[in-house]
Amino acid sequence: MQILTKIEDLRKELSVFRRNGQRIGLVPTMGYLHAGHLSLVNVAKENADVVVMSIFVNPTQFGPNEDLARYPRDFARDERLARECGVDFIFYPEVPEMYPEPFFTYIVNEQMAQVLCGVSRQIHFRGVTTIVAKLFNIVQPDVAVFGQKDAQQAIIIRQMVADLNFPIRIIVAPTVRESDGLALSSRNVYLSPEERRQAPVIYSALTKARAAVRDGMNSATEINKLIRSTIATASLARIDYIEIVDDRTLTSVEIVEPGTFVAVAVYYGQTRLIDNIYLKER
Amino acid sequence: MQILTKIEDLRKELSVFRRNGQRIGLVPTMGYLHAGHLSLVNVAKENADVVVMSIFVNPTQFGPNEDLARYPRDFARDERLARECGVDFIFYPEVPEMYPEPFFTYIVNEQMAQVLCGVSRQIHFRGVTTIVAKLFNIVQPDVAVFGQKDAQQAIIIRQMVADLNFPIRIIVAPTVRESDGLALSSRNVYLSPEERRQAPVIYSALTKARAAVRDGMNSATEINKLIRSTIATASLARIDYIEIVDDRTLTSVEIVEPGTFVAVAVYYGQTRLIDNIYLKER
């Protein structure tokens, strides 16, 4: 495994594989790796001959009052985990390598970036699409793998790839969970022991909603109520949003249809956790 | 020469050249070709093994009150001219091929797109960067050629390529002019005979300004006055803007320095003509 910090060095290394007709897979991350990230690497390895993992805490996707400065980092541990699961290249640039001054160009999706997490995180998805497009142009992967946990992110990136004709296949891999159902997230480390104890209520509420849909419930209003009342049983949970939306447009639905999923964001103290589940598959 | 209307067909054709290590050159146009476009093809041919010209009147770069519907078109003539000057592929898509519904993702440069032509053409450059990025991802050229006549466009595209790490070399080719100095433009066809007779005053004013700078004038205010008074000698000319700016940031300068150029837009009736000249080269 090689660790590269410069764009030109990575391009040079990858051009050899590309000339040999080998497929390149990309797994973009912000580091502080957990089993969710490693599952993305496994998917990338199944679909490519060489796997690049980027580790970059992207400043443009953090709002002014968010956790950029305290976002957890542990590169030595990330390096070991990436090596163990068979990553070929870690791309680990510093901020000035990715955002030299002046930097003016952003990729925006106004329709999809102002709902769900976009309501409380105004500039977040603009930062995500911009950094992902940069990584796409730097790595020029055949395939890139994202996690279903960040459902809105994955949908916005799929739309970007379609709209801007990136010649890249996007794979979205299932959410990896703790044994009690809590979705893995680098931010789980922020939780106090009591918050951590209460956090699985999020996934309990989602699975309860899906079970209710299987039993015939199909009104978004009723499903929303069910989830809200379930999460309310956790005294430290504060709901940011519960939204029942279409997986292609991210617009709210009133009645569950194929492609409807529910996405939630819940605060425990300052820590904001997100999760989602399909109510009916396409 | 082949004419292709489908993205997948063009990609398939070009993949053969790419595999053989041949360099691909792209000349994006809106058709209604003139000698300015053909000079871009010649530059592309000098810098690539195979030349793709796109002909697409891009709706997203026209405002609601602009000339999209009446923009001049003559594909039969364009085809003949492109063939004569050695284009290998014309990419000639229809609108639904480039903008299938739903379409949500745009590329924006807020700093550089709201000055000069961006003041009167609010969404213009968002449309330009978006369509050019799409063409970049479809053609994946090694080099792309743009004209200096559209100076702001060329600068915004250079910035996009740098900011988003497109692995593409941008060449900006000199403005081609009529013998009386009028910059070639597909929109010149809109001019009445009397408007056409008065139109060369634009370039006269620009060359007079550059001569004044060579003779020691360096105040942007004075240069602006000189250009304004010269253009005012043409009774049908109505000045939209005269701006003296830096060629990397597009911000106004007070004193001429290396990299300073003057850009103007002038209306003759409904027809809006633009031109520019360097006051001092870098």
Account of the protein in words:
The structure is a homodimer of 282-residue chains. With 282 residues, the first copy, chain A, is α/β, with parallel strands linked by helices. The first copy, chain A, folds into two domains: 2-173, Rossmann fold (3-Layer(aba) Sandwich); 186-276, Pantoate--beta-alanine Ligase, Chain: A,domain 2. Chain A is built from eleven helices and ten strands. The first copy, chain A, has helices spanning 7-19, 35-47, 75-84, 95-98, 110-113, 117-120, 124-139, 151-164, 193-198, 201-214, 220-232, and strands at 2-4, 24-29, 50-55, 89-91, 105-109, 143-147, 169-173, 237-246, 260-268, 271-278. The first copy, chain A, has a six-stranded parallel beta sheet, sandwiched between helices. Chain A has a three-stranded antiparallel beta sheet with strand order 8-9-10, with helices on one face. In chain A, strand 6, helix 8 (151-164) and strand 7 form a beta-alpha-beta unit. In chain A, helix 7 (124-139) packs across helix 8 (151-164) and helix 10 (201-214) packs antiparallel against helix 11.
